[in-house]
Amino acid sequence: MNLTLKIWRQNNAKEAGKMVDYKINNISPDMSFLEMLDVLNNELIEKGEDPVAFDHDCREGICGMCSLFINGEAHGPDRGVTTCQLHMRMFKDGDTIYIEPFRAKAFPVIKDLVVDRTAFDKIQHAGGFVSVNTSGNTQDANAIPIPKHDADRAFDAATCIGCGACVATCKNSSAMLFVSAKVSQFALLPQGKVEAADRVRNMVEEMDALGFGNCTNTGACEIECPKGISLENIARMNREYLKASIK
Fold first, then answer.
1. 49-65 CB burial, b ≥16 within 10 A, e <16
2. Which GO terms describe its biological process (predicted)?
3. Segment 40-75, tens digit of pLDDT
4. Which terminal residue of the chain, N or C, has fewer Cβ atoms less than 10 Å from its own Cβ?
5. Top-level class of domain 3-111
6. Cα–Cα dist 192/170, whole Å
7. Contact 170/213 with Cβ under 8 angstroms?
């Protein structure tokens, strides 16, 4: 395939960026989207030009690093995949592809297509964990009976990889799907109930302090989420927050 790429280039968060056009030829439909960008970068390096900076790590759809906004969609036109799992067969010969970073106040651009998602780490640090009793009387988690329905829902919430597609997709740059997934995976389990009230209050307050917007109730986050995190988690987080607020 021969393609035209319109890629956002920006040296850092303080400088203005712009879309730059690139022509790329002989792209196999079996390539992943990141492999296509690798080909482009090799060509740029051979010409002595600055390669396009983009984030990636495992390239197996697990780490959530490869977050790109492609043709107006987080992770591109496919569903249930991250950018590294997106294949060029989703495009046609002669297509023009727009490639941008995830845009949100809380995700400042580092360079080109790379954004700083430290905000998600700060939300996790605020309460996305279970404190461990190290008194010597710690109960083995496998010995605690948990209804299968609760365990399944907790596992579904825990599949969130923190890529930020929900934020990039939301008109308000809301992080509520991410935060609710992290709250839900503990709220559904007995190990997480001890700190439940402090957890949800601290995580929601940190989310607001970092500049994320409120939920739009449009459901775009669930559609674009590569792991299919359900909106039910947002409803659960709201219930948990309400309970914590009136205690």
1. eeebbbbbeebebebbb
2. aerobic respiration; respiratory electron transport chain
3. 999 999 999 999 999 999 999 999 999 999 999 999
4. C
5. alpha beta
6. 29
7. yes
